[in-house]
Amino acid sequence: MATRLSQLLEPARIQLNLQGNKRTTALNEVARLLEHHPDVVSFQGFYNELLARERLDTTCLGNGIALPHARTDHVKNLVLAVGRSPGGVFFENSQQTVHLLFVLGTPKSNPGDYLMLVGALCRLIKDDANRDALLAAPTPEAFIQTIRELEARVLKLAPV
To answer: Could you give phi then psi for residue 96, rounded to 5 degrees?
Structure first.
């Protein structure tokens, strides 16, 4: 895989205690972590497409995880931000409470990396113990380290 989740994550793009408990508020809170990312050409354009995609269909993956995303010309490379809500965010369009939001932006020109990344994320989070480890990570740095360990164990990727 060209890009790993752990390679896209930075502590400044991880919010472990989301304030918003409504879907649109929490989505904005996580997306804003990408506002000044060097690969985001137009944050407002990206955010508008993210909201449009979210209106089309739920981005809940089940098990308290959501992957709001947009394939857009407003990002130059894959970008990722993570929000965690201990109390949960209710996604009314799927009637699910979400504790982890992975907000992903991907260039329209590169669907392959996007699909591999989504597949990898789904494999990492399908196991209860793996989700629990991400929910328990005390700091953004520990969250990234947990993702690295899961990539090594679950996806059999050599540590970077």
So the answer is: -125, 150
Write out pLDDT tens, residues 17-74.
999 999 999 999 999 999 999 999 999 999 999 999 988 888 888 899 999 999 999 9
Fold of 5-154: Mannitol-specific EII; Chain A (3.40.930)
CA 9, CA 4: separation in Å to the nearest integer? Answer: 9
- Asked if residues 100 and 135 have their Cβ atoms less than 8 Å apart, the reply is yes
37, 69, 74, 99: which one is catalytic?
69
Kindly indicate the confidence band of residue 1, based on its pLDDT and cuts at 50, 70 and 90. Answer: very low
Domain boundaries, the chain: 5-154
Q: Is 36 a catalytic residue?
A: no
